[in-house]
Amino acid sequence: MPTPTAPVLPPAAERARLAVSAVFLINGALFATWAVNIPGVRTALHLSEAQVGAALLAVGIGSLLSMPLTGGWVARVGSHRVTALLAPLTMLALVPPFLAPSLWPLSAALGVLGVLNGALDVAMNAQGVTVEKALGRPVMSRLHACFSLGGVVGAVLGLLLVGRVPMLAHVGGAALLS
Prior knowledge:
mainly alpha
Protein backbone atom coordinates (compact mmCIF):
# COMPACT_ATOMS: atom_id res chain seq x y z
CA MET A 1 0.00 0.00 0.00
CA PRO A 2 1.48 3.35 -1.00
CA THR A 3 2.17 5.88 1.73
CA PRO A 4 0.14 9.07 1.59
CA THR A 5 2.06 12.18 0.76
CA ALA A 6 1.35 15.71 1.83
CA PRO A 7 -0.36 17.79 -0.84
CA VAL A 8 1.91 19.99 -2.86
CA LEU A 9 0.90 23.58 -2.26
CA PRO A 10 1.10 26.18 -4.97
CA PRO A 11 4.18 28.28 -4.22
CA ALA A 12 2.22 31.53 -4.44
CA ALA A 13 -0.32 30.37 -1.83
CA GLU A 14 2.44 29.30 0.52
CA ARG A 15 4.28 32.62 0.09
CA ALA A 16 1.01 34.44 0.79
CA ARG A 17 0.51 32.38 3.96
CA LEU A 18 4.00 33.23 5.18
CA ALA A 19 3.54 36.92 4.35
CA VAL A 20 0.21 37.28 6.13
CA SER A 21 1.60 35.29 9.08
CA ALA A 22 4.40 37.84 9.33
CA VAL A 23 1.88 40.70 9.31
CA PHE A 24 -0.07 39.10 12.15
CA LEU A 25 3.16 38.55 14.11
CA ILE A 26 4.36 42.10 13.59
CA ASN A 27 0.97 43.55 14.51
CA GLY A 28 1.03 41.59 17.77
CA ALA A 29 4.51 42.91 18.52
CA LEU A 30 3.31 46.46 17.79
CA PHE A 31 0.44 46.08 20.24
CA ALA A 32 2.76 44.78 22.96
CA THR A 33 5.37 47.48 22.29
CA TRP A 34 2.75 50.16 22.86
CA ALA A 35 1.33 48.39 25.93
CA VAL A 36 4.64 47.99 27.78
CA ASN A 37 5.41 51.66 27.26
CA ILE A 38 2.10 53.13 28.47
CA PRO A 39 3.46 53.73 32.01
CA GLY A 40 6.48 55.54 30.58
CA VAL A 41 4.28 57.78 28.42
CA ARG A 42 2.09 58.51 31.45
CA THR A 43 5.11 59.49 33.52
CA ALA A 44 6.77 61.52 30.74
CA LEU A 45 3.62 63.56 30.09
CA HIS A 46 2.55 63.75 33.75
CA LEU A 47 -0.87 62.30 32.94
CA SER A 48 -3.46 61.11 35.41
CA GLU A 49 -5.01 57.67 35.09
CA ALA A 50 -8.17 59.28 33.69
CA GLN A 51 -6.14 61.16 31.08
CA VAL A 52 -4.41 57.95 30.00
CA GLY A 53 -7.82 56.32 29.70
CA ALA A 54 -9.08 59.21 27.57
CA ALA A 55 -6.03 58.99 25.31
CA LEU A 56 -6.49 55.23 24.93
CA LEU A 57 -10.10 55.84 23.94
CA ALA A 58 -8.75 57.51 20.79
CA VAL A 59 -7.34 54.17 19.60
CA GLY A 60 -10.74 52.53 19.83
CA ILE A 61 -12.55 55.43 18.20
CA GLY A 62 -10.03 55.48 15.36
CA SER A 63 -10.49 51.76 14.81
CA LEU A 64 -14.27 52.06 14.86
CA LEU A 65 -14.10 54.79 12.22
CA SER A 66 -11.84 52.90 9.83
CA MET A 67 -13.06 49.32 10.11
CA PRO A 68 -16.40 49.72 8.30
CA LEU A 69 -14.73 51.62 5.46
CA THR A 70 -11.93 49.14 4.98
CA GLY A 71 -14.16 46.27 3.87
CA GLY A 72 -15.23 48.17 0.76
CA TRP A 73 -11.66 49.24 0.07
CA VAL A 74 -10.50 45.61 0.34
CA ALA A 75 -13.30 44.50 -2.00
CA ARG A 76 -12.28 47.09 -4.62
CA VAL A 77 -8.49 46.84 -4.44
CA GLY A 78 -7.77 43.43 -2.90
CA SER A 79 -6.81 42.43 0.61
CA HIS A 80 -3.19 41.77 -0.32
CA ARG A 81 -2.70 45.32 -1.64
CA VAL A 82 -4.46 46.98 1.28
CA THR A 83 -2.53 44.86 3.79
CA ALA A 84 0.78 45.60 2.03
CA LEU A 85 0.06 49.34 2.21
CA LEU A 86 -1.29 49.46 5.75
CA ALA A 87 1.26 47.23 7.48
CA PRO A 88 4.24 49.59 7.17
CA LEU A 89 2.08 52.67 7.76
CA THR A 90 0.72 51.15 10.96
CA MET A 91 4.20 50.28 12.17
CA LEU A 92 5.39 53.83 11.51
CA ALA A 93 2.30 55.21 13.27
CA LEU A 94 3.60 53.64 16.47
CA VAL A 95 6.24 56.39 16.77
CA PRO A 96 4.21 59.67 16.88
CA PRO A 97 2.48 58.93 20.21
CA PHE A 98 5.94 58.86 21.79
CA LEU A 99 6.75 62.28 20.34
CA ALA A 100 3.61 63.90 21.72
CA PRO A 101 4.27 66.73 24.18
CA SER A 102 0.87 66.61 25.92
CA LEU A 103 -2.50 64.87 26.14
CA TRP A 104 -4.16 66.29 23.01
CA PRO A 105 -1.33 65.53 20.57
CA LEU A 106 -1.02 62.10 22.21
CA SER A 107 -4.74 61.48 21.70
CA ALA A 108 -4.54 62.60 18.07
CA ALA A 109 -1.53 60.36 17.41
CA LEU A 110 -3.28 57.43 19.08
CA GLY A 111 -6.37 58.14 17.00
CA VAL A 112 -4.30 57.87 13.82
CA LEU A 113 -2.72 54.67 15.14
CA GLY A 114 -6.23 53.35 15.82
CA VAL A 115 -7.44 54.24 12.32
CA LEU A 116 -4.51 52.47 10.70
CA ASN A 117 -4.51 49.48 13.02
CA GLY A 118 -8.26 48.99 12.69
CA ALA A 119 -8.01 49.10 8.93
CA LEU A 120 -5.03 46.75 8.98
CA ASP A 121 -6.96 44.34 11.18
CA VAL A 122 -9.76 44.12 8.62
CA ALA A 123 -7.37 43.82 5.67
CA MET A 124 -5.08 41.20 7.19
CA ASN A 125 -8.02 39.06 8.30
CA ALA A 126 -9.54 39.31 4.82
CA GLN A 127 -6.18 38.30 3.40
CA GLY A 128 -6.15 35.38 5.81
CA VAL A 129 -9.49 34.22 4.42
CA THR A 130 -8.14 34.56 0.87
CA VAL A 131 -5.10 32.49 1.78
CA GLU A 132 -7.28 29.85 3.43
CA LYS A 133 -9.27 29.49 0.22
CA ALA A 134 -6.12 29.26 -1.88
CA LEU A 135 -4.64 26.59 0.39
CA GLY A 136 -7.88 24.68 0.76
CA ARG A 137 -7.37 24.31 4.51
CA PRO A 138 -7.96 26.41 7.62
CA VAL A 139 -5.14 28.73 8.69
CA MET A 140 -6.90 31.50 10.61
CA SER A 141 -6.18 29.96 14.01
CA ARG A 142 -2.48 29.83 13.11
CA LEU A 143 -2.57 33.43 11.92
CA HIS A 144 -4.10 34.53 15.21
CA ALA A 145 -1.50 32.44 17.02
CA CYS A 146 1.12 34.47 15.13
CA PHE A 147 -0.48 37.65 16.49
CA SER A 148 -0.26 36.21 20.01
CA LEU A 149 3.34 35.13 19.46
CA GLY A 150 4.10 38.67 18.29
CA GLY A 151 2.56 39.94 21.50
CA VAL A 152 4.81 37.65 23.52
CA VAL A 153 7.88 38.73 21.54
CA GLY A 154 6.97 42.41 21.97
CA ALA A 155 6.36 41.95 25.69
CA VAL A 156 9.64 40.11 26.22
CA LEU A 157 11.53 42.80 24.31
CA GLY A 158 9.75 45.38 26.44
CA LEU A 159 10.77 43.51 29.58
CA LEU A 160 14.38 43.64 28.41
CA LEU A 161 14.36 47.23 27.12
CA VAL A 162 11.94 49.32 29.20
CA GLY A 163 13.93 51.36 31.68
CA ARG A 164 17.21 50.36 30.05
CA VAL A 165 17.01 52.25 26.78
CA PRO A 166 15.19 55.48 25.96
CA MET A 167 11.52 54.87 25.19
CA LEU A 168 11.77 56.45 21.73
CA ALA A 169 14.75 54.26 20.85
CA HIS A 170 12.80 51.15 21.87
CA VAL A 171 9.71 52.15 19.90
CA GLY A 172 11.60 53.49 16.89
CA GLY A 173 13.66 50.33 16.72
CA ALA A 174 10.53 48.18 16.91
CA ALA A 175 8.85 50.19 14.15
CA LEU A 176 11.88 50.04 11.88
CA LEU A 177 12.51 46.33 12.45
CA SER A 178 8.90 45.59 11.66
